[in-house]
Amino acid sequence: MTWRDSGRRLRSRKPLIVNSLQSLERVFDEAPHPTVASLFRQACDLLLVIDNEGEILDCHITKELSGNMPPPGVVGRNWSSLVTVESRLKIQEMIASALKHGEARWRQINFMSEIEDDIPMTFKVQALGCSDQLLAFGRDLSRLTNVQQNLVQAQLTLERETARLRSSDTRYKVLFRSVGEAVVIVDPMTETVVEANDAAEVVLKRSERKLINRKLGEVFADFHAALVSDLVAKAKVADKRDFSDILTSDDGSRHIVSIRYVPQQPDSFILIRISPADIAAWSTKSNGHLLADSFLDAMPDGIVITDKDGRIFQANSAFQTIAQLSSEDAAIGQSIEKWVGRTSVDFSVMMANLRKYGYLRNFATSVRDELGIETNVEISAAAMKGSASGSFAFVFRNIDQRIVASKNTETIGKTNEQMVELIGKLSLKQIVRQTTDEIERLCIESALTITGDNRASAAELLGLSRQSFYVKMRRFGLSAK
């Protein structure tokens, strides 16, 4: 379609618009006055009928405005007396324009209110032609004003937060650049350098431009790059835990590198710190935890470090083997009760003795691995000194292969000999009863030994009620002990 065709089509529509307006005027002419008045009232929030001097002859206020606007006694008052000072001149100009031209353009008028702030409204004044009366149509702007105020407040808050974040970012950059220790921030997904401070540029002998967006293999090319990659892989598996080692550069200089994975939303990062190596001090103080980790992994006995509630935050390789765990991560955060004890009583007894005495020695129990297979172990434990959170260290020793003649075995052997001597002297029923009593006594004594003379735990361990357990103790003369 050409421009000429579109112009012709627009011109052809113009008579239709004129005819529609004429039809609308005819509708108003033919409509009864109550209907027209009702339409006017519904078309605006405030409708005023005024004379040439601005005196209010009649008014209609919607329910939404009636609570804030002046009372209905406004009829007979001058319109200018209800508005603020700066709006009075506007009213005079609108009345004059309506008397001269038949109507006045929309102007904002602020009404005074005794309840809230001034009420902003926009008004248009229309002359009634044959009459000396005027109609003032008013629309409420309060909602729009509230939206504008909320928008301004939001904008101010956003600007304040932006300024605060900009200030924090500046402080971080100044502190990061001025730290004496070399620090490198690495993206864990791509293993590329995101940030590096001035000290890192000196240690790595590269400018910031040559460090940013470079792979770790390139950055540590003059050092033991494979060792750094291995430490990064370990750090990714263990959150918020440092992995350290000594790096030796091609020129023979040594540095201590410490790597930690920091999970954070939305972006996690790896923190690499590099400092000059003082081997003696590092071995004994600065990196003592590394030596401790190496010692724990080298131990043939299972070693587990837990918090005061028994939740594991470190487990060595031997314990992972006993419990058939794929990695240390499978144990971290879990309760030691998941693997330790024939029943829940063992765990309760262990923790009760640790909290009461601070140590536990040669506690015989079992460990259930991930396949449900039980391994007989002996546990020694102690509360770790200098730990504010009350940590415990447990040592698990496998005793499946141990062959030791226990007191219970000797006692049972004697019982067998006594039972043989009773044959012929007593009936079978009496022999069985006497032998059963001896076995019950031995079980009760063993349960009390295991639980540290805790009768309630011993009863639970044997599957007896406390009352039955106490009765049997009195029966065998153990209550006095």
Radius of gyration: 46 Å
DSSP helical segment count = 17
Shape: elongated
Helix and strand content put the structural class at alpha+beta
Query: What's the average pLDDT?
Result: 76
- Helical residues, percent: 40-55%
Q: What's the total count of β strands?
A: 15
Low-confidence stretches: 12-25, 279-288, 403-410
Give the neighbour order of strands across the main sheet.
2-1-5-4-3
Largest sheet: 5 strands, antiparallel
Strand content: 15-25%
Distance between termini? Answer: 113 Å
Tell me about this structure.
It is a single chain. This protein has 481 residues and is of the alpha+beta class. Helices cover 46% and strands 21% of the residues. It has helices at residues 3-30, 33-43, 63-66, 85-101, 142-178, 198-204, 208-211, 216-219, 225-237, 279-286, 288-298, 317-322, 344-357, 407-422, 428-450, 455-462, 466-475, and strands spanning 46-50, 56-61, 107-111, 119-127, 134-140, 182-187, 192-196, 243-248, 254-262, 269-276, 302-306, 312-315, 359-368, 374-383, 392-398. A five-stranded antiparallel beta sheet has the order 2-1-5-4-3. The chain has a five-stranded antiparallel beta sheet with strand order 7-6-10-9-8. Strands 12-11-15-14-13 form a five-stranded antiparallel beta sheet. A hairpin with a 4-residue loop joins β6 and β7 (192-196). α14 (407-422) packs antiparallel against α15. The N and C termini lie far apart (113 Å). 20% of the residues are buried.
